[in-house]
UniProtKB/TrEMBL annotation:
<keyword id="KW-0663">Pyridoxal phosphate</keyword>
<comment type="subunit">
    <text>Homodimer.</text>
</comment>
<protein>
    <recommendedName>
        <fullName>Diaminopimelate decarboxylase</fullName>
        <ecNumber>4.1.1.20</ecNumber>
    </recommendedName>
</protein>
<comment type="similarity">
    <text>Belongs to the Orn/Lys/Arg decarboxylase class-II family. LysA subfamily.</text>
</comment>
<dbReference type="InterPro" id="IPR000183">
    <property type="entry name" value="Orn/DAP/Arg_de-COase"/>
</dbReference>
<dbReference type="InterPro" id="IPR022643">
    <property type="entry name" value="De-COase2_C"/>
</dbReference>
<feature type="modified residue" description="N6-(pyridoxal phosphate)lysine">
    <location>
        <position position="49"/>
    </location>
</feature>
<comment type="function">
    <text>Specifically catalyzes the decarboxylation of meso-diaminopimelate (meso-DAP) to L-lysine.</text>
</comment>
<dbReference type="InterPro" id="IPR022644">
    <property type="entry name" value="De-COase2_N"/>
</dbReference>
<feature type="domain" description="Orn/DAP/Arg decarboxylase 2 C-terminal">
    <location>
        <begin position="18"/>
        <end position="354"/>
    </location>
</feature>
<feature type="binding site">
    <location>
        <position position="302"/>
    </location>
    <ligand>
        <name>substrate</name>
    </ligand>
</feature>
<feature type="binding site">
    <location>
        <position position="329"/>
    </location>
    <ligand>
        <name>substrate</name>
    </ligand>
</feature>
<dbReference type="Pfam" id="PF00278">
    <property type="entry name" value="Orn_DAP_Arg_deC"/>
</dbReference>
<dbReference type="Pfam" id="PF02784">
    <property type="entry name" value="Orn_Arg_deC_N"/>
</dbReference>
<feature type="active site" description="Proton donor">
    <location>
        <position position="328"/>
    </location>
</feature>
<dbReference type="InterPro" id="IPR009006">
    <property type="entry name" value="Ala_racemase/Decarboxylase_C"/>
</dbReference>
<dbReference type="InterPro" id="IPR029066">
    <property type="entry name" value="PLP-binding_barrel"/>
</dbReference>
Amino acid sequence: MLDNQLLKIAQDFGSPVYVYDAGKIESQYKRLTNAFKDVKKLKLNYAVKALSNISILKLFKSLGSGIDTVSIQEVQLGLAAGFSPDQIIYTPNGVSLDEIEEAAKLGVKINIDNLSILEQFGTKHPKIPVCIRINPHVMAGGNANISVGHIDSKFGISIHQIPHILRIVENTKMNINGIHMHTGSDILDIEVFLYASEILFDTAKQFKNLDFIDFGSGFKVPYKPGDIETNIEELGKKLTARFNAFCKEYGKELTLAFEPGKFLVSESGYFLTKVNAVKQTTSTVFAQVDSGFNHLIRPMFYGSHHEISNISNPKGRERFYTVVGYICETDTFGNNRRINEINEGDILSFKNAGAYCFSMASNYNSRFRPAEVLWYNGKAHLIRKRETFENILNNQIEVDFSTKIEKQLVK
């Protein structure tokens, strides 16, 4: 998006505000489908947890996407957005059997990553098809918090426990219709991903009634100029050839599934903030904005990088600034960044704000969560109102402390 378009949105809707470019979402979706165009059956299931606004979900539905959900609430959101149950896969972790059964009643695809739950579910519901999440014990991801396929991860059933899975399937006569893995986010080396895929293929051979193999996602997007990213086109060529060969060996055309989230929405997003104050200390110049990690936690949580630009003064002289928020706790967005000269009242734009920004936002310090705006067909559409003080109090219940309770002596 252009700086003048973003500035107009900040003026019209106030700051802070999240902005999403629908055109970028569509181009990322097409890029991924084009990379795997030689697969006969391809299914992309957008990972709802990245950005769950119902208008975003409806946009993906219009593109032909399914959705990947991790909670019963995300399942319900998907249904409310118009997805049919067979377009929704439910991949929880650490939830109760009751929640899995609730999802199964809604008719969505079930993905289980726990031996105990698998046996309980198979015993009670042997006729309901189930996908199994495998942990390939392959380390991937740019941060320990987002690497989920290694041996110490809480996610998935270990490949070394395949005999246990097979015993449960034999004893319960349950129907396994899919095999799944997810190694982690920010995959840099596609060879590591392909290596994990071979483990998944070997596992798939153990099950004779599969309909699909789900390779998860975790594709890295660039966070700054010159940054490396997952080579989707090369991965598409190599994995397509291997997948098609496997289908011939298996004797059936399976569906190749992915569940991308960040790859599809991260670069579409901009987070706009206003500069409240420019503060000079003995060693640092702080640009203090009207937000904090209550709205954009990723830099403090993951050490993630978001490019920051001053869209109010794009041609100004560059200076070094440390951009911080207004939370009563350390909330640094970027240290010693070269940014065009900043004055109080300027609007700063944070890039890559489409994934895990609003969805991880909170009311910490009793601050309101910002509005969300979708730029679609050359027009700004408000898709979530800014919160108000009434929203903060909405579910709180006040106790009446005005009545004094007399103490009674027991004789």
